[in-house]
Amino acid sequence: MIDLKLERDPPFIDQYGTLFSTRDTHQSSCDSESSVVGECELPLIDLSALRGSGDNNQRRACMEAIAKAASEWGFFQVVNHGVGKEVLEEMRREQVKMFEMPFEKKVGCRLLNDSYRWGTPTATSVKEFSWSEAFHIPLSKISQEGCCSEEFSSLREVMEKLARTMSDLARLLAGVLTEYLGHSKQLFDENCNESTCFLRLNRYPPCPFSPEMFGLVPHTDSDFLTILHQDQVGGLHLMKDSRWVAVKPNPEALIVNIGDLFQAWSNDVYKSIQHKVMANGKVERYSIAYFLCPSYDSMIGSCKEPSLYKKFTFGDYRQQVQADVKKTGHKVGLPRFLL
């Protein structure tokens, strides 16, 4: 009898066997990368004051809490965020249904405009490899003909609802962060729309090499900000005070983190923090991420002078990241653009 669970998992070991056969060579470096000193609860912020149910003082206090978390942590979690529990549950059901397809079908069905990804083709060692699979979807592609097959006829509607509410939340938070520094949110209205932003549906299969394997290698996000909905399995870790800490899941909250572009634009007031996902040996993990991104030709300048960074476009940044990953196996990011 065919094990359907194994049939749906990507062939990590078959495809990348040489990496795992020599994993003992890299284990010490992976272990040092993966050591966690404890569990943390991210700053929890109630957004109801921003959504019409608070006075000016409450709104200002909420803005200050968001800016403080973005500056001190680079991560925070939000409740009363406007993304309905029902649409998140619907999306989870559709997501599980997609990932339960046999691997060969996921690769060949061209679902969601051929957005399926798995593993790390550029990896040259275990510490550069991500034990995960994902559908990485430009928002503009969701409504296009052929995006979803008849088998997934309800998927398009659910994704469109989720994308709308995630977009509204991302713009609300980005507007708060820019307003707090005395600037207009026009930057996002002009440069970030459904043709530039993304949804990413993630699955982290059980890993026989856990806990030494990354589900997602340590990295920072290259966007303005990311909104994450995760399940209760855990595994998200972030760098705090030069040490890795595990993030305690909160079923009522969405996680928000600052990306590289916001750090550069804010002149390092807001922090894009390194984070990772650790593989689990027994259970699979699911998450959904929304990425607030500008067009590739958008110029990312500093909100004040003197700037710490030279001016660059998002396209320049992405190109440099890809070149670094190809050459060195990891992302260098913002240090490449310091003056």
Which sheet architecture does the biggest sheet show?
8 strands, mixed
CATH architecture: Sandwich
Enter the CATH topology name. Answer: Jelly Rolls
User: Terminal Cα separation, in Å?
Assistant: 61 Å
N-to-C series of helices and strands = HHHHEEHEHHHEEHHHEEEEEEHEEEEH
Count of DSSP E strands?
A: 15
Q: What's the level 1 CATH class?
A: Mainly Beta
What portion of residues belong to β-strands? 15-25%
What's the total helix number? 13
Helix content: 25-40%
Please tell me how large the radius of gyration is. 20 Å
Low-confidence stretches: 24-29
Catalytic activity: gibberellin A1 + 2-oxoglutarate + O2 = gibberellin A8 + succinate + CO2
GO molecular function: gibberellin 2-beta-dioxygenase activity; metal ion binding
EC number: 1.14.11.13
Keywords: Dioxygenase, Iron, Metal-binding, Oxidoreductase
Q: Could you walk me through the main structural features you see in this protein, from its secondary elements to its overall organization?
A:
- A hairpin with a 2-residue loop joins strand 9 and strand 10 (243-247).
- The longest helix has 26 residues, at 155-180.
- The protein has 13 helices and 15 strands.
- An 8-stranded mixed beta sheet has the order 2-3-11-8-13-6-5-4. A 5-stranded mixed beta sheet has the order 1-10-9-12-7, covered by helices on one side. A two-stranded antiparallel ribbon has the order 14-15.
- With 339 residues, it is α+β, with helices and mostly antiparallel strands.
Provide keyphrases for this structure:
20% strand, Jelly Rolls, 339 residues, dioxygenase, alpha+beta, 8-stranded mixed beta sheet, 5-stranded mixed beta sheet, 13 helices
